[in-house]
Specification:
Layout lengths: L5 H26 L5 H23 L7 H27 L15 E2 L2 E2 L28
Antiparallel strand pairs: 1-2
Helix pairs in contact: 1-2, 2-3
Length: 142
């Protein structure tokens, strides 16, 4: 690209912008397609990775760098891609766990004053018997 004229450079940049727009449209097609969610996620991540590499290659001028510098610049994209894909897929197909109930919660603090026993369970009663949903509506949480 060092010997290209300004008009030729503009053509290349507009062509790359067209590729990026096309990849964005492909991503949108994946989002609204009837494919399984896990496959959609992987395809969208691949398309996003391609867009990131295109931006780095042409707009950040990695195409003019040495071989090892290219590898060092592109390697984090692949690491992030595989990590993000793993987390997304794991969240979708991983085991569903019930949220454990939190017993013996600390005292709640209200605006303007601390909560001193009003509405607290009777002495000796276990904390799990308290019904938080039954709190009066004029109580304002801080």
């Amino acid at each position: 690209m060092a010997t290209m004229t300004l008009e030729e450079k503009k053509k290349v940049y507009f062509k790359v912008a067209g590729y990026l727009a096309a990849l964005t449209m492909i991503e949108l097609a994946f989002v609204y397609s009837p494919l399984p969610d896990t496959l959609k996620t992987i395809l969208i991540c691949v398309a996003s990775l391609l867009k990131a590499v295109c931006v780095g290659w042409w707009y950040m001028h990695l195409n003019h760098e040495t071989g090892w510098l290219k590898v060092l610049a592109i390697l984090p994209f692949f690491i992030a891609f595989f990590y993000a894909t793993y987390l997304i897929v794991d969240a979708r197909i991983g085991p569903t766990r019930a949220i454990p109930t939190y017993y013996n919660a600390p005292a709640k603090v209200y605006k303007g004053d601390t909560h001193h026993g009003e509405g607290a369970p009777a002495e000796g009663a276990p904390a799990e018997q308290k019904d938080d949903d039954a709190a009066s509506e004029d109580d304002e949480w801080s």
